Structure formats: C-alpha cells, structure tokens
Amino acid sequence: MDNLETVEILLFEDNPGDTGLIEFMLEESTDFFYELKNVETLNEGLKLLKYHSFDVILLDLGLPDSDGIETFIEVNRKCHEAPIIILTGLTDEKTGINAVKRGAQDYLVKGQVESKLLERSIKYSIERKKAEEKIQIFANIVESSDDAIITKSFDGTIMSWNNGAERIYGYSADEITGKSISILESDIFKGETKRLIEKIKEGERIRHYETLRLRKDNSLINVSITLSPVFDTSGELVAISTIARDITERKRAEEELKLANMYNRSLIEASLDPLVTIGPDGKINDVNYSTESITGHTRDELIGTDFSDYFTEPEKAREVYQQVFQDEKVFNYALEIKHRKGYVTPVLYNASVYRDESEEVIGVFAAARDITERKQAEEKLKEIIEELERSNYELQQFAYITSHDLQEPLRTIASYTQLIERRYRNKLDDDADEFIDFIVEAAVRMKNMIQGLLYYSRVGTKGGELKSTNTEELLGIVLYNLNAAIKENNVTVTHDKLPVVVADESQLIQLFQNLISNAIKFKKDDECPIIHISAYKGKNEYIFSVADNGIGIEPQYFNRIFEVFKRLHTSVEYEGTGIGLSISKRIIERHGGKMWVESESGNGSTFYFTIPLNQLDLKLKT
Ligand code: ADP
C-alpha cells in the first residue's frame, strides 16, 4: 500500500461510543488518510455496498438487525472485493475466529484495540486481499489452461492437478492427487518420469520434451512436456511443476505431412524421366534416381554442382535456363545429357520456375524426357521411307520399261493378226474366222492395258510442271474431246463455277476425261446420263466432285475400283481396262490431294478429289 493513500472504510457499528473510539484511533494513523462511513444496521450497510465500494470493512457482528457469524456471511456475500475485519466483544472471540476461517481477513477484540494495531490490521488486510486476488487470478489461469499443469514432489507424488490435466489424461484432481506421476507412464516409457525428476534436481531444465503418456482409458497420448523446479520463499527446491501440452493434432499433421512427402518423393523417384531442381545460382538442389542413372553420378555428387556441366552443350543448357526465368516455362527443348562414361542421351526438356509461399521464384524445376528411342524410330522410319521411295522408283522404272518394251512385240502381233484378218477372212473355215476375231480383240485389249500401264507409271516421273490452271476452261476442252460420246448418249453436263488451281494441266484433263467418260459409260439403260461438276473451297484445299445418275457402286468396292486393272464388270458388259481410276487417283496424289467415291448401287455415283490451296503443299509426288 502506498503511503498516505486515502482509505475508504465502511464501519458497521451501532454503538456510537465504539464508533467514536475507532474514529479517534484512525485519526492517529500516520500511514494513511481515511474516510469513514458508519452504518448502524446490516441493512443500511448492505444497501450502501450496492452502489459504493470500500477499501476495507470493519464489521461489528452484533447489530440491531443481525447477530453473530450470520452478519459476516451476509456482508461477505454482498461484497467480495473489500477485505472484512471483524470487531468482536470480549466474550465473542470464537465467532471472530470462525469468521476468519470463512474468509474474513482479521478479527479485533473491542476494548483491546489500540490505534497501531488497528492501523496495521487495516493495512495488512488490504494487502492480503490484493495478494489473494493475484493468487486467485493465477489459480484461474491454471484452471482454465488447455495445458495440463501439475505439481509433484520429488518422489513423484502428484500435489496439484488442473482442469487441463483432467482433460488431457482423463483423471480428476480428486482421484489422482497424492498418487505417483508414474501412473501416466506407458510400458515402453517406464521409469521416464523418475529420470526426468532426477534431471531437474540436478539443475537441468526440460523444455518441450515430446513423449507418449498413458491416459486413464489406457489410450496413449502425444504430449510435449516442460518441467520446472518450484522453490519456496526461502529459495529451497520443494517441488516440480509440469506443463504438458496435448500435441496429438500436431503429431497427426506432421505424420500426414511426412506421408505426403513420402508419397511425393516416391512419385518423383518412380519417374522414368530425370527430374532436377536447380537454384537461382544454377546449382542442382535435388535430383531423382533417373537423373543419377542418366548421368552416372550419385545424388551426392550432383547436388551443389552446376547443372550445365552435365550437358554436351553447357552454353545451350544455360540459355534455356535463363529462358525459363524469363518465360516461366519452357517446353520440349532439345538437349543432350552426358553420362560420366561418355554416352550421350538425347532429351527433350520441360522446365518451369517454382516459388516459395510468398510467390518468390526460388528455382527451376526441370524434367527431361529421354528421346533415344524416338530418335532411333525416326531414323528407322527415314531409312524405310528412303528404301520405299527407292523401290517405288525401281518399280515404276520397271513398269515403264516393260510396258514400253512390250509394246513393240505387241504391235507386231497386232499388225500381223490384222493382216491375217484382212487376207484370210472368209477363206478359211468359220472357226478360223472366230479365232482370228478373238486374237485381234485380245491384242487390242492388251495394247490398251499396256498403254494404260505405261501412262500410270509415268504420272509421277514424266508429268508436266504444276502451274496456274483454270479448271473451268480445262473442263471445256474435256467436253470438246468427249463431244461424240456426249451427243451419242444424250448426256447433260452441268457445272458450277470452277476455280483456278495450281496443277499439271494435261493430267487434270486426263483426270476429268476419265471421270466423265466413266459417268457416261456406266449409265443406266433407261436413263440419259446427267453429270454435274462442282468445286468448293475448304480450309486448305478445293474439293471437286463429279456426280452422275448412273448405275452406282456398292460400298464394298469403294476402294477396290481405284486399284490397277480392278473392274466390277466384264469387258463385254462395259468395255475398258480398269486402269482409268488408278491413273486418276495417282494424278491427284501427285498433286498432294485425295480421291474417293460416294455412291449407292443403282443411285448414281459422286467422285471427289481435292487439290491443295497452298502452293507450298504441292510438292511433286513421285
Ligand atoms: P474402266 O472404266 O476401264 O473399267 P476404271 O478404273 O475407270 O476402269 O473404273 C474401274 C471400275 O469402277 C469400273 O469398271 C466400274 O466398275 C467402276 N466405275 C468407275 N466409274 C464408275 C461410275 N461413274 N459409275 C459406276 N461405276 C463406276
């Protein structure tokens, strides 16, 4: 209590003589000023306490409206803050003691009080009340703490046990106080509490010590324990306090994190692609197993070294690394990884920056894909294509040479059979005339086939140059060429506006001629042919179509009719060699386009072909 403070005192006293005496004694006080309020009855005092607080209450237990310990009980119930000092008569000391037991700060016997004693009692009561309040606050803190706060003696006997301890371990204070702390030890930690106590005795501090404890229900709980020595006022070590925190949740989260990390790590290790993280300084931070095997270096050798050392072109590797920082990502960047023993692995790199929680870029994550096999496959494919081109060329040469050379003897056969026909018809018997007809027919047919084959073999190699070609004009030429057949068969030919394309003009004439003459040839018996030619512009190509109202084709023959000498009819039904569509398709393929048919048996056919728009696509196909 600060000196010379003003102390507000409420005095319950119905005897004016005693009141005067107390006032007199208080005036003599050298330590404080006072303000005294005197009430003569309990009721009056209680009313006053409702709206006014005092520093101390002097209470005479014998009042007109209340007597004995009841007086104290009533006042104490109404007022917790102020310390209460009991004033008793000489004969009533027992009641005073009783009141002190129930929370009064002191009792004074009227008639034996003198001013120093009163002054000391008031001061002492106020201080003690304050100290009690502080203790109460600490006690409340201890009780409301989520942590277990326990005191135990050196032999491990539990002396105090808060609510937190009850929550964590399941024992109430009543059932565990006085028992040994070892009750909380699980079998695997037997003797641990004793060892910890020994350490404290030796002056060691134990902070955040993580262990397992046994709860009342026999379950185990993860706790973090801090042990501290407790000293008495003389500085002597008297007990040990334990604060235990339930860390089950934290342990579970840690366990989960550990599992997640293990899972991620397994994924990384399982990857067949070499994975690397590189710091901003270009040094390797982490690698997976694949990286070890592709470089021939162990993880320890790799970590901390410059990543670019492991490439055949370190400069290029550094460039791509810079590029990742600039663009955040890099896709399919081709590099070659060096193995310690000298092998080289071609890879495609995908890399991106990675960041910390504050979004700060802290490095580059790079994944390489071994493309050795792909490269080998590409190489193989290239070889096959070259081989194919070569054999294709040889085949064409062969077809060309044979068909060319066959023409010569064939011409001789044809000429001489025609000579025989002219000279000896009707001069031999009927059979002979018929035989001669067969030979002539077969010779002509063979001639046509060989010519067709010759043309076919020359589409790729002996074609003309590709140049701007007006297909509408070109159609005019074709219709002119086919004029006789058109007239004879009463054919109606219509067409849309046709485009200018880049093409080999004479081959396109051949193509249109084949398609239109087929459309006439494969007409229905009872209908005049109607043919319509159109073209529309697609995204990358023109799509032409030649539609007729002829006999149509069954779907299973849609591919077959484009093969060499493949026909769906005998030459008696419809004359022809079966090479026209093969030539047409080859012409279109040479122009970089495609050809197909759509038809329904008995319902006409539409032949489609495409010619690319882009001249660059028009590489000559051989
Ligand atoms: P050819 O006309 O000499 O028989 P092609 O190669 O031109 O040979 O045609 C192959 C076969 O495709 C023909 O024999 C015929 O059966 C069928 N074909 C072609 N064009 C048509 C068409 N417009 N309508 C019906 N069938 C057709």
Give a summary of the structure in a few sentences.
The chain has 622 residues and is α+β, with helices and mostly antiparallel strands. 43% of the residues lie in helices and 24% in strands. A hairpin with a 5-residue loop joins strand 14 and strand 15.
The unreliable regions are 616-622
Mean pLDDT, all residues:
90
**What's the overall geometry?**
rod-shaped
Write down how many β-strands occur, each being a DSSP E stretch of 2 or more residues: 22
**Cα end-to-end separation:** 115 Å
The order of strands across the largest sheet is 2-1-3-4-5
Radius of gyration: 57 Å
Strand-pairing-aware structural class:
alpha+beta
Report on the biggest sheet.
Answer: 5 strands, parallel
Helix content: 40-55%
Ligands, deduplicated: adenosine-5'-diphosphate
Strand content: 15-25%
Q: If helices are DSSP runs of H or I spanning 4 or more residues, what is the number of helices?
A: 18
